[in-house]
């Protein structure tokens, strides 16, 4: 297997590449001049919608777009498309064919590499492989469920690309009958009532009243741990959730991935920036692995989207470009796929790439907002006050919660107050008033009880039957709100 690193990808043609008529265009002209690309992307920075609206962002958007298009062109010339580039799981790891099993791993620092007792050979470009043919009885020499150990120099490792593991050990997973999904992935777009996500471990997935999406937490790359759940059981569970109308998302923890890959081949520079704990997001094989991870979960387990965690985009253009590639890939495979990012002080996170943004669907903010923020999710937990919980539900586009029995969320589900996306926000003596649809919401996020006057009549307080108020006259109502309290008024 001929390894092509990032620096040399454009300098030479790939041996044995068969180009279709469509792809041959990319050798005759720049990708950025191809008609298909001109329809999908806007390369003139002055025509980007974000730059038109906020011209002060031109410089930062121009620099990251230039690198994005340069890398995208490189990927297409070497791998045909970003979708093909992101199918590394079909090239690396344990590949089963009718003739045998091929194992491939990228380990540029390895002097010797073995899979169990089978010695690998290298192309001197960092790639190692071994082919293990079937035996004389036409059976694979490695049986389903076997433990697979990679010996890299004097280190014992589990393959980076393993798709099934048992604890820390890679498992060869090749059952006679694999579970196949009975229907295609749901491609329903989230409606204006917002995205309400419940966090769950991979072995505890179930629908919870009021939520319309589930976030699978604590996963590292592609491996399903049989200590928690088998691949077939996971597929059945996801299909059942899809049939109930739920979306299933996955948390991609980049800090956890970096820790997992640290010094895999004994070097400090394989997947990391040398001398740091951070992945090198500008490196070819790092990009292949991270993008393939996304593609794998979509194609193999019909995951509907991702939350990108523990990745600091500030002052790092390589990370910004990786996230643009990731969003481009996700929305190419899943037009209605969902991508979520922590809300950094970084321009145009939730604008499309063609508009000059990074392409995220939602950003995750802290519970501090005092204004209506479309495309914003809030993270709520057991420590959140009633005011903070309702604030999260109402002012953003939804929530990510680890509270299973969220009373306010169930009330919202019954009343459907988010059907109207528009909200009027006011400040009345430090109490936030939000008018949305036929409801009014009052938030007291201060540390003091407040008594305020409203210029309308209250018919009912929906979330607190014991709440008292004084009707001063037809046009004035006086009501007291305790610290941390939130009220829903009809």
Please describe what this structure looks like.
There is one protein chain. With 490 residues, the chain is an alpha/beta fold. Among the domains are: 195-414, TIM Barrel (Alpha-Beta Barrel), CATH 3.20.20.80; 421-489, Golgi alpha-mannosidase II (Immunoglobulin-like). It has helices at 21-28, 35-40, 49-53, 58-79, 82-85, 231-243, 254-261, 284-301, 317-333, 386-395, 407-415, and strands at residues 93-96, 100-106, 113-115, 118-119, 121-122, 127-133, 147-148, 150-152, 155-157, 164-166, 169-171, 195-200, 213-219, 224-225, 247-253, 305-309, 338-342, 362-365, 376-380, 398-401, 424-428, 431-436, 439-443, 450-454, 469-473, 476-481, 486-489. It has an 8-stranded parallel β-barrel with strand order 12-13-15-16-17-18-19-20, surrounded by 4 helices. A hairpin with a 2-residue loop joins β10 (164-166) and β11. α4 (58-79) packs across α9 and α8 packs parallel to α9 (317-333). The chain is elongated, with a radius of gyration of 26 Å. GO terms for molecular function: 1,4-alpha-glucan branching enzyme activity. One of its GO terms (biological process) is carbohydrate metabolic process.
Topology:
Layout: H1 21-28, H2 35-40, H3 49-53, H4 58-79, H5 82-85, E1 93-96, E2 100-106, E3 113-115, E4 118-119, E5 121-122, E6 127-133, E7 147-148, E8 150-152, E9 155-157, E10 164-166, E11 169-171, E12 195-200, E13 213-219, E14 224-225, H6 231-243, E15 247-253, H7 254-261, H8 284-301, E16 305-309, H9 317-333, E17 338-342, E18 362-365, E19 376-380, H10 386-395, E20 398-401, H11 407-415, E21 424-428, E22 431-436, E23 439-443, E24 450-454, E25 469-473, E26 476-481, E27 486-489
Parallel strand pairs: 10-14, 12-13, 12-20, 13-15, 15-16, 16-17, 17-18, 18-19, 19-20
Antiparallel strand pairs: 1-2, 2-6, 3-4, 3-8, 5-6, 7-11, 8-9, 10-11, 21-22, 22-23, 23-27, 24-26, 25-26
């Amino acid at each position: 297997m001929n390894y092509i690193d990032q620096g040399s990808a454009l300098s030479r043609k790939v041996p044995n590449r068969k180009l279709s008529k469509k792809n041959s265009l990319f050798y005759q002209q720049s990708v950025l001049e191809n008609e298909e690309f001109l329809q999908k992307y806007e390369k003139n920075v002055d025509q980007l919608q974000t730059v038109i609206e906020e011209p002060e962002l031109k410089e930062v958007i121009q620099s990251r777009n230039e690198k994005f298009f340069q890398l995208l062109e490189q990927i297409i010339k070497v791998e045909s498309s970003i979708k093909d580039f992101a199918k590394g799981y079909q090239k690396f790891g344990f590949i089963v064919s009718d003739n045998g099993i091929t194992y491939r791993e990228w380990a540029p620092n390895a002097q010797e590499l073995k899979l169990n007792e089978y010695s690998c050979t290298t192309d001197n470009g960092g790639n190692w492989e071994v082919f293990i043919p079937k035996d004389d009885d036409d059976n694979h020499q490695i049986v389903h469920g076997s433990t697979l150990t990679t010996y890299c120099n004097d280190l014992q490792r589990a393959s980076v690309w393993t798709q099934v593991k048992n604890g820390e050990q890679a498992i060869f997973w090749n059952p006679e009958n694999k579970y196949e999904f009975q229907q295609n992935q749901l491609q329903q777009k989230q409606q204006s009532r917002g995205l309400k996500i419940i966090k769950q471990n991979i072995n505890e997935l179930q629908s919870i009243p009021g939520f319309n999406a589930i976030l699978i937490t604590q996963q590292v790359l592609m491996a399903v741990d049989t200590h928690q759940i088998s691949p077939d059981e996971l597929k059945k569970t996801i299909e059942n959730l899809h049939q109930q109308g739920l979306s299933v998302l996955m948390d991609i923890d980049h800090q956890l991935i970096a820790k997992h890959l640290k010094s895999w081949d004994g070097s400090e520079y394989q997947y990391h920036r040398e001398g740091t704990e951070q992945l090198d997001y500008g490196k070819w094989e790092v990009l292949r692995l991270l993008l393939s991870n996304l593609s794998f979960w979509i194609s193999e387990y019909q995951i509907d989207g991702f939350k990108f965690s523990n990745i600091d985009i500030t002052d790092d253009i390589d990370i910004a470009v990786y996230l643009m590639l990731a969003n481009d890939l996700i929305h190419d495979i899943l037009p209605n796929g969902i991508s979520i990012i922590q809300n950094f002080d970084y321009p145009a996170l939730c604008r499309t790439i063609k508009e000059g943004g990074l392409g995220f669907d939602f950003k995750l903010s802290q519970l501090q907002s005092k204004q209506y923020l479309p495309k914003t999710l809030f993270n709520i937990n057991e420590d959140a006050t009633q005011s903070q919980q309702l604030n999260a539900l109402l002012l953003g586009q939804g929530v990510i919660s680890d509270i299973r029995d969220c009373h306010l969320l169930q009330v919202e589900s019954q009343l459907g107050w988010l059907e109207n996306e528009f909200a009027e926000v006011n400040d009345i003596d430090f109490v936030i008033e939000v008018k949305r649809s036929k409801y009014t919401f009052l938030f007291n996020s201060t540390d003091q009880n407040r008594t305020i006057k409203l210029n309308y009549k209250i018919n009912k307080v929906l979330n607190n039957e014991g709440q008292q108020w004084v009707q001063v006259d037809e046009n004035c109502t006086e009501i007291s709100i305790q610290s941390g309290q939130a009220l829903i008024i009809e």
